[in-house]
Amino acid sequence: MEVLRWRIFPLVFLIFSFLVLYIKTSSKQSNSDCSLLPYEHYWISSRRIVTPEGVINGAVEVKGGIIASVVKGKNFPGSIPVVDYGDAVLMPGLIDVHTHLDEPGRVEWEGFSSGTKAAAAGGITTLIDMPLNSYPSTVSVETLKLKVDAAHEKIYVDVGFWGGLVPENAFNTTALENLLNAGALGLKSFMCPSGINDFPMTNSTHIKEGLSVLAKFKRPLLVHAEVVLDSESNLNHDSKGSDVRSYETYLRTRPPTWEEAAIRELQEAMQETRGAHVHIVHLSDSRTSLDLIKDVKRNGASLSVETCPHYLAFSSEEIMDGDTRFKCSPPIREEANRHKLWESLLDGHIDMLSSDHSPSVPDLKLLEEGNFLKAWGGISSLQYVLPVTWTYGRKYGLTLSQLVTLWSERPAKLAGQHLKGAIVTGNHADLVAWEPDLEFELDENYKTYHKHPSISAYMGKRLSGKVLATFVGGNLVYGDEKHAPRACGAPILAKERPIFAKEIAVE
């Protein structure tokens, strides 16, 4: 019997070892579907790596989804696989803090799968989804859960979520705290009609209430800063017989004074609510509005501001009659305004860039009718923002380091993502490799992954800067014009506990 037991034991051990090996191998094979690379520990080398210390010739070590080290030159062991991008630029992946993915509820406009595929193909490694244009809007714990559930196994990049500040929750401190405790990275509000029925506008009183709650959590309030001043300015009115196919007609309905008035109201609200951060989205007016923002910052208020590539690439003078692809709000303004936006951006007065990717179905753009006053407003742009920014920006002297500051470093801080946005040891291995001098035509033959590319204002443009590869958490999610077999991006939910007023006073 003793002999039989010793004969059986090796067989049992062999079977057990085989099962363990099978489970491990199966798990590793399943995980490998997340990446176009077959390994988890490797080097990425380039002669142009954009780091906080400048552009270096060297390599980035990736291990287990994290940047394990950054070295100059060829000082890395040859025993580990190397992915060499030569003269291509390697920099942190873009972080887009302002995009509308429209799922659930309006997936025919855009969705998590199509939107994040486009993001990956455009070098974007993190998206923060806006709370409106999906249905229902993300204004409660329940609707945030719907968002997270809808994103499950569909996202190719990491995705976080802003919650909505609207009249129905603004005076309900418990509801706002629950939404933030559930993981919303901050809140978003409109100071003018949003165009979405379940996302009504807020006034300064609502904003003050929201800021008092956000201050406890140290999370931002993002604001669409336009206030309607003239009761006769109505987007659904034919402006007293003016040509509705003329962009100038639409431009007159949303003057810069709307932005100025909103910023003045925000300034007052911030003075009464200390400790909260306000972020102004998609600034289009580079004159008085920007001067007011500079004053607010000089006075020590916690304020940041973004603009978008379409305000930097286009001017109102070039928009043809009836071409409603260019309609957005605030509107694209004059050429002189565009130049001043670039100057302010490169001088540091505008903090960051975002896409404000706001798609729709083509029918809502009324392209055949060409009515600027009735067409849906929004620029479809998600996949193109890196080459657009570079193509137009280098004419103004934009550097690679500035590009990273505007598209990675500062957006990461706004969204509270302190392990993203820079190529440094310990950060997430979220990276993009791209060719700054490689030109391409953005036409019907160009492979675009977000929905309805024909309605994008960028179609027909020749751009510089082609994305070669995008890494998210060390996974090569896009390369050689194809995506990884599985969508393995992670939902980003804020987990920090709130910081209460007495604790702020002690700090």
From TrEMBL:
One of its GO terms (biological process) is allantoin catabolic process. It catalyses: (S)-allantoin + H2O = allantoate + H(+). It is an enzyme of class 3 (hydrolase). One of its GO terms (molecular function) is zinc ion binding. It comes from the Eukaryota. Residues 89-477 form the Amidohydrolase-related domain. Gene3D superfamilies: Metal-dependent hydrolases. GO terms for cellular component: endoplasmic reticulum. Keywords: Hydrolase, Metal-binding, Zinc. Its EC number is 3.5.2.5. SUPFAM superfamilies: Composite domain of metallo-dependent hydrolases, Metallo-dependent hydrolases. Pfam families: ALN_composite, Amidohydro_1. Residues 37-88 form the Allantoinase composite domain. Homotetramer. Catalyzes the conversion of allantoin (5-ureidohydantoin) to allantoate by hydrolytic cleavage of the five-member hydantoin ring. Catalyzes the first step of the ureide allantoin degradation followed by the sequential activity of AAH, UGLYAH and UAH which allows a complete purine breakdown without the intermediate generation of urea. Belongs to the metallo-dependent hydrolases superfamily. Allantoinase family. This is allantoinase. It comes from Asparagus officinalis.
